[in-house]
Amino acid sequence: MSMPGGGHPVSCAGDTMTIMKVGTLHLKLLRDLFRLKGQALAIAVVIASGVMTLIMSVTTLEALSGSRDRFYASHHYADLFADIKRAPLGLLERLQTLDGVSRLEPRVRAPVRLDVTGFDDPVRGVILSLPDGRQPNLNRLHLLAGSLPEAGRNDQAIVSDAFADAHGLRPGDTIQAIIDGRQTRLLLSGIARSPEIIYQAAPTDLLPDYKRYATLWMNERTLANAYGMKGAFNQLLITLQAGADVDTLIDELDLILARYGGTGTQTRHDQQSHRFLEEELAQQRAQATILPAIFLAVSAFLLNVVMARIIQTQREPLAMLKAFGYRNGELARHYGLLAVLIVLLGWVAGVLLGAWAAHGLAGIYAEYFRFPEMHFHVPPWAMALALGVAGLAALAGTWHAVGRAVREPPAEAMRPPAPQRFRRTWLERSPFGRALGNESRIVLRHLLRHPAKASLSVIGIALSAGLLLMGAYQLSAVEEMLDQQYRQVMRMDIELTFSDVTPARAAGELRHLPGVLVVESWRRVPVTLIHGHREYRTSLLGMDERPRMRQVLDPQGRPQTLPVEGVMLTRFLADHLQAGVGDTLEVAVKEGRRQHLKLPLSALVDEPIGVGAYLQRDTLNALLNEGPAISGAWLLVDSDQQAALNDALHRMPAVASIGMLSEAERGIRDYMDETILMFALVFVALAGSIAFGVTYNNARITFAERARELATLRVLGYTRAEVARILLGEIVLITLLAIPLGWLIGVGFSALLNQAFSNDLFRVPLTLPPYAFGFAAAGVVAASAIVAVLVIRRLGRLDMVTALKAVE
Amino acid sequence: MNDTSDVVFQTRGLKRFYQMGEVTIQALRGIDLELRAGELVVMLGASGSGKSTLLNIMGGLDSASEGSVHYRDRDLTHASQRTLTEFRRHHVGFVFQFYNLISSLTARENVAIVTDISRDPMPPAEALAMVGLQARLDHFPSQLSGGEQQRVAIARAIAKRPEVLLCDEPTGALDFRTGIRVLEVLEEINRTTGTMLAIITHNEVIGEMADRVIRLRDGQVGDIHVNARRRPPSELRW
């Protein structure tokens, strides 16, 4: 008999057999999965939590960095930036011939003050020139509405989108600008984004203030006329050829531009928008490394333990299948598949939730980082990694347990386990132990009889308590950091920056303005600090000997006095430069006569936000060979007279910027609330889920292991409550043991996180408030309480007769 | 029947010790025995006499501490776990006192879980029909009576067409009427298929249906009695 398609009957029969074989055992698998649904779901939650942290962090990171890279490339973001006092356009021909230069874009850049109808606060900004009527070659604009200023028009401007959004401005609206001291009415021709202001904060600010800071673009001829830049430029943008020697090129550029008042060629790293984005990405990268690593490791460990214990409860069915002649490999595959199904369930949920959360977070970031578009995709490598880690952990746990189960001769496994050897423990012989009732004794002996098993349970719950503590730390640390910065370091109400270096007597005039209570002046000069082969571009800040409005703190948070000689550095910066107290730093001044100085590092400053170099103002003036000069002042003001003061300051032409500290603080708090705290909340929720998943599985397994014994007690006349006490006693004891261990683990996790999160912009202090410990403990206790209720409900359904008779 | 080629199981000086907690139990103290193809043997003994241990060792579920056990010309004494697994898979059917059905599988599926891995099994439905359960194929164990569950267990044991069927107290958990029905099924299988049937029990009466009755006492063979005539199970009373 021939088969259609030329198949052999024999091989066909073989296939049918394989399919059938797969059938029944797999059917058992699905039914087991359904029977274990509570536990399987709890494990899936643990896996999903670990996977979600990775997917969420990595997807957000990729969305941010990918969007940035695409924006930079499509809009030709410059590689180098040079500010000059004034250089003739004719110079470009020579610069173009330098090795490594690809494209040059000269432009005029000028500070501006704006008046928006119906908005009383001072608005600062910067105007950048555009080639008449067309897009520049570099740092091209992404127009969202309207069009470029028409060629030849000197009253049209494009405005940055964030500012336009904040004030509800549209193309066709007008605003007042004070350009070089003259009131000018500007017609908005369009609204745009630019790769150089993805992050739109004022140069002196840490965070954007969309209402009070704007970027404008106007035709080059208009600006050149207003600022005396006809046939000249004061800023140069440069892109590099592939393989260019950047350091040599910068040296050459600096040499040529120095005679035109160049202040040193900067890289992208010195650009505020790029820098902030870098820092944010670094933070994200740290977060995407350390947190998923911790979460995945914890869930992998728990998965391993839980799978192993579930298999142990399957000892008898396993032995039976063995009695029928199933091979060890077949059984291992069978239970391995059970683990794989649970892992897949958790993985799919984790990937979906992670992508969903990342999408939400990217929406928040879009508020701060102005990309033309945010591209989203979950990186396949992250999905594979998550699946790999979870899968391996589950299989390892399963393998180990199945291996142990199948080693036992089936006859042994099918007989109820031999009564285990119990002993009176040292605890019971103590006076405390003698006071224990029978139920407590059962609980104690059980735990001490299986120290390994009990330890794993304790460690499992402790790990989830550790995660909770870490989450609470994240939440509290940001608060702590901001409190320190705004209560102890920055104590002024207003920070004024002058447009030029000003004689110190100007501070005296400020004192007479309405509402001004205290004035403290300061001198700031841009420098590069060099120690060995390490360098860092920052500024020297000269202050009073004992600054009261901008304190420099020691590790105990006490204000320090500035030394007569030498410079103080933020601890993070000193570490970065690998410099210790007593070392000599080279200081290359990037302004005026560009001196090269040598300064001893005299002390370190502990501050949570930013990095800086501090010295006495008189010392700085002397080093720069100048008289008593200042760059700005800090004011304490009477809030009742704030409006009058704003008015007066706004009319002072020497004032380049007016920074309101309360605004800055609110801004940074909003930013932190929306980004870092959002992440932290998600992590806390995930840590909570893990705590629940672990506790639930622990309780269910304990229940399964002791069902026979508990049923016996019920048969003997114990009430349900009495039996519940034994079961719950074990859960409570394990939870109580886990809490202090969890605190310890949590402190370790927090230290890891703290280390990973420290960067130039922020350093979160490693201080754990008592409520964080309370929170972690409450989290696991709450999880245990919910679990206790669920287990007691199961106890109500315990069938005494079956539990005693049935082997399974 | 004395032809040595007909010997299925042969044990010599078989001993088995167990460590139970802190006590060493001597379950078997030297058993010499031969079981032959096609015969129906009942092994009688009180609890603790070692009958279950003997059955487990013959079935490859357990290993001897001393002595030897052979199945046909195969030495099971020092067989590896892998060999014992293959032996169980293809040659032995088991019936246990507490049925040991998989509660998450139906009657048919409980049989299929064994036929899935056998070389030449009968269809599960046919095996279940042989034990009179053709109408209960898709019932779960929890929907079957004790007797029915035991018959599913028997169907599961015979479905692979084993050469030997080992039953450990197959009626131990059943009432009299149901027990008789189960014994009828077992006897019929032995008679019609020629499968060697070994039943262990503490119930003396069941011995009357056997070709031979082997009495175990304290881990040793007490005496062996050959029945002149096998009494049909329906005539048994206890």
UniProtKB/TrEMBL annotation, chain B:
Mention any one GO cellular component term assigned to this protein in its UniProt record: transmembrane transporter complex
Q: Which UniProt keywords apply?
A: ATP-binding, Nucleotide-binding, Transport
Q: Where is the ABC transporter domain?
A: 9-238
Q: Which Pfam families match?
A: ABC_tran
**Which is an annotated GO molecular function term of this record?**
ATP hydrolysis activity
Keyword GTP-binding present in the record's keywords: the answer is no
| Entry similarity comment | Belongs to the ABC transporter superfamily. Macrolide exporter (TC 3.A.1.122) family.
Mind telling me what this protein is named?
ABC transporter
